Amino acid sequence: MLPWFADDRFPLFLAPMAGVTDLVFRGICKELGADVMVTEFVSAEGILQADGRTRKYTEFTDGQRPVGVQLFGGDGARLGEAAKKIIDWKRPDFIDLNYGCPVNKVVARNGGSSLLKNCGLVASVASGVVKAVAGQVPVTAKIRIGWDSENINAVEVAKTLVDCGVSSITVHGRTRAQGYGGEADWEVIDTVARAVPVPVVGNGDLTCGADVMRRKQETAVAGVMIGRAAMANPWIFREARDFLTTGTSHPATLGERWDLVLHHCRLAVASGRYGNERQTLTSMRSRLMAYCKGFPGARELRQQLCHVVAVGEIEEMARLCLHRLNEGHPT
To answer: Catalytic pick from 29, 101, 164, 265?
Structure first.
């Protein structure tokens, strides 16, 4: 049993999301109660070519543990080599294999969810990595329920992965054809969880603590993974843990939300990972607009955030927003 599943903990995972779950954001989610981190996915070929930009995606701090590095690719031997290099750089707590990404450029390279069409390839990739890292770190996998509605094969894929030595499986309850549309099928997730002897983590349409509690009570999953909801509301991890523990939760106040926005900006600028202050905030604009979902005057705020180049501008936006709220003025 992987330690983060011990003692019926029911861990809350932060999903790997390209361009979102970077080093800074993972640290924020950890502060807010996420139990297990997974890096943005990285290309095995990029790792093997010693691509400095690719290697950056594998970085993490010890305070973020347990943390896994997610790899994608279609060649088990090459993935195994890449996994060993990552372990040599900085030993993660696990290596996660991506069988779920629906993005065309990944699928076209025989990676991500394209592998779901061929259980032989599923096995080849998993076996290559498990054998390469044997005795060093566990290997986990993230899958979708199938390629499309006519080819839902999550149970078969999961059993194949277990036979290859994978230690846990995360199931996103959509097909590749769905992308991120439609509803996640938790009945299939539950069926997978009951069909294999390793922990299964459920992923899809988890937007609040009540959603997490419902899936814990109604399915056999051993934990949940939260993705897109955390982009606008990283407090969801705190809310979910409160709900699981007490049956109630306390959503973040507007003041707490603005504090978080500013905290993220300051950390990102201080990290220097994205260039100078102007470059950093320019790269963060879409993230900041996501944070402001549900804020008073959100439409106006989003328009302003399209142009921010300094943390001071955001501090002033926060001050005015909270002042108007406290004064009872319309925004």
So the answer is: 101
